[in-house]
């Protein structure tokens, strides 16, 4: 192994869950160095939601590292596979998206990914390019290359089959279509989350069937969301979108537990392993974990906004912690004074329902102009007031 390849492997393997097959990737890198032919590195994302979140950036960061090593990065938007819906990790059939929904979501995907990737050095592709062209005949020929028994080896399919939970035929096609993407792109290396391992392996097998050298596979850990339990997901509401305002992003990062903070450092921070280990030692010796969490929050905010935005976000967070009003407060105009406190909180968008609003009042989590509200029967008179729910929700309400 050359020194260049040894260095590249060290960068590639940091934070990785699994590398399949390590010796094959070394040989690909050696050949790339000798022939001055960069590897083709693929990441596919289905545009099932409009926003990318920090969980997505775990694999995007690794893609950027490979880009900086000189390899060709292919950012694949699964506009065709989105219409099937990835069944990975699901115990029910995913509702299909319309072409209009997919196109709307896809518009923002690459722009957001470019906050991590170097857009000028990224090849952007859509899998409808080759999937639409397959047609019915091509789809049948592709399906003939894989058996039902092998598809049902997937853990989520096996569980659903044993439980008698319906599995639609189109769901069985998803791994094949994702695998065919690797054939169409002649991929050398594909990245994905740990939940994608089966799909990535299908791509490897299909490439053999089509006479290509099989791709290597790099799986990255799934980042837990703000709850510290479920993986980060917009549908679970435990996410931090990479396009969120700096103050919101910082406050959400500060809300994670001290224990989860280290997981976020490992998967999101660009600091060296040695520096992170030094932080852990400082905390063990008595340093306040909050200080270390602030550094993480500022690093992430600076990455997606700016250094000044990170400094302002810390100042805003400290002001809120002391009971002050943040700089950015949404303004809301309401009618119907005098208005019940439950209705006011719901209509101002501070609580999802009046029952939740009244529960927050009962728990002492509601303030008007800084004063705690404890009366659930309160009728709020006309005027302009700052309403706060919990630590992070504010609104400047004009009530008439």
Automatic annotation (TrEMBL):
<dbReference type="GO" id="GO:0004831">
    <property type="term" value="F:tyrosine-tRNA ligase activity"/>
</dbReference>
<keyword id="KW-0547">Nucleotide-binding</keyword>
<keyword id="KW-0648">Protein biosynthesis</keyword>
<keyword id="KW-0436">Ligase</keyword>
<feature type="binding site">
    <location>
        <position position="234"/>
    </location>
    <ligand>
        <name>ATP</name>
    </ligand>
</feature>
<comment type="function">
    <text>Catalyzes the attachment of tyrosine to tRNA(Tyr) in a two-step reaction: tyrosine is first activated by ATP to form Tyr-AMP and then transferred to the acceptor end of tRNA(Tyr).</text>
</comment>
<keyword id="KW-0963">Cytoplasm</keyword>
<feature type="short sequence motif" description="'HIGH' region">
    <location>
        <begin position="47"/>
        <end position="56"/>
    </location>
</feature>
<keyword id="KW-0030">Aminoacyl-tRNA synthetase</keyword>
<dbReference type="InterPro" id="IPR024088">
    <property type="entry name" value="Tyr-tRNA-ligase_bac-type"/>
</dbReference>
<dbReference type="InterPro" id="IPR002307">
    <property type="entry name" value="Tyr-tRNA-ligase"/>
</dbReference>
<dbReference type="Pfam" id="PF01479">
    <property type="entry name" value="S4"/>
</dbReference>
<dbReference type="InterPro" id="IPR001412">
    <property type="entry name" value="aa-tRNA-synth_I_CS"/>
</dbReference>
<dbReference type="InterPro" id="IPR014729">
    <property type="entry name" value="Rossmann-like_a/b/a_fold"/>
</dbReference>
<feature type="short sequence motif" description="'KMSKS' region">
    <location>
        <begin position="231"/>
        <end position="235"/>
    </location>
</feature>
<dbReference type="InterPro" id="IPR002305">
    <property type="entry name" value="aa-tRNA-synth_Ic"/>
</dbReference>
<feature type="domain" description="RNA-binding S4">
    <location>
        <begin position="339"/>
        <end position="400"/>
    </location>
</feature>
<dbReference type="InterPro" id="IPR036986">
    <property type="entry name" value="S4_RNA-bd_sf"/>
</dbReference>
<keyword id="KW-0694">RNA-binding</keyword>
<comment type="similarity">
    <text>Belongs to the class-I aminoacyl-tRNA synthetase family. TyrS type 2 subfamily.</text>
</comment>
<protein>
    <recommendedName>
        <fullName>Tyrosine--tRNA ligase</fullName>
        <ecNumber>6.1.1.1</ecNumber>
    </recommendedName>
</protein>
<dbReference type="InterPro" id="IPR002942">
    <property type="entry name" value="S4_RNA-bd"/>
</dbReference>
<keyword id="KW-0067">ATP-binding</keyword>
<comment type="subunit">
    <text>Homodimer.</text>
</comment>
<dbReference type="InterPro" id="IPR024108">
    <property type="entry name" value="Tyr-tRNA-ligase_bac_2"/>
</dbReference>
<dbReference type="Pfam" id="PF00579">
    <property type="entry name" value="tRNA-synt_1b"/>
</dbReference>
């Amino acid at each position: 192994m050359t020194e260049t390849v040894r260095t590249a492997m060290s960068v590639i393997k940091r934070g990785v869950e699994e590398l399949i097959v390590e010796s094959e990737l070394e040989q690909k890198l050696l050949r790339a160095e000798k022939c001055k032919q960069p590897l083709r590195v693929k990441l596919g994302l289905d545009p099932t939601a409009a926003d990318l979140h920090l969980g997505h950036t775990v694999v995007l960061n690794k893609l950027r590292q490979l880009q900086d090593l000189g390899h060709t990065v292919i950012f694949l938007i699964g506009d065709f596979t989105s219409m099937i819906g990835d069944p990975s990790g699901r115990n029910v059939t995913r509702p299909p998206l319309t072409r209009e929904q997919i196109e709307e979501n896809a518009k923002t995907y690459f722009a957001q990914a470019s906050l991590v990737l170097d857009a000028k050095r990224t090849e952007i592709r859509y899998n409808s390019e080759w999937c639409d062209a397959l047609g019915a005949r091509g789809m049948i020929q592709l399906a003939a290359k894989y058996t039902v028994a092998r598809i049902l080896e997937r853990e989520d399919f096996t569980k659903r089959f044993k439980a008698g939970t319906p599995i639609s035929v189109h769901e069985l096609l998803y791994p094949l279509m994702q695998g065919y993407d690797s054939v169409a792109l002649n991929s050398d290396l594909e990245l994905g989350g740990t939940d994608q391992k089966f799909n990535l392996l299908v791509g490897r097998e299909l490439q053999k069937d089509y006479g290509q050298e099989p791709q290597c596979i790099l799986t990255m850990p799934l980042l837990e969301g703000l709850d510290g339990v479920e993986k980060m997901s917009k549908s679970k509401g435990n996410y931090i979108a990479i396009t969120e305002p700096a103050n919101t992003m910082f406050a959400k990062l500060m809300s994670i537990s001290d224990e989860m903070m280290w997981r976020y450092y490992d998967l999101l921070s660009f600091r060296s392993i040695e520096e992170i280990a030094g932080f852990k030692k400082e905390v063990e010796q008595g340093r306040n974990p909050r200080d270390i969490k602030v550094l993480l929050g500022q690093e992430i905010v600076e990455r997606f906004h700016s250094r000044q935005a990170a400094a302002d976000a810390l100042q805003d967070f400290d002001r809120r912690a002391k009971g002050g009003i943040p700089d950015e407060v949404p303004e809301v105009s309401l009618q119907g004074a005098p208005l019940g406190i439950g209705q006011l909180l719901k209509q101002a968008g501070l609580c999802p329902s009046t029952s939740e609003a009244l529960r927050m009042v009962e728990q002492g989590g509601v303030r008007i102009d800084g004063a705690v509200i404890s009366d659930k029967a309160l009728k709020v008179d006309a005027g302009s007031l700052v309403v706060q729910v919990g630590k992070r929700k504010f609104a400047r309400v004009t009530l008439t």
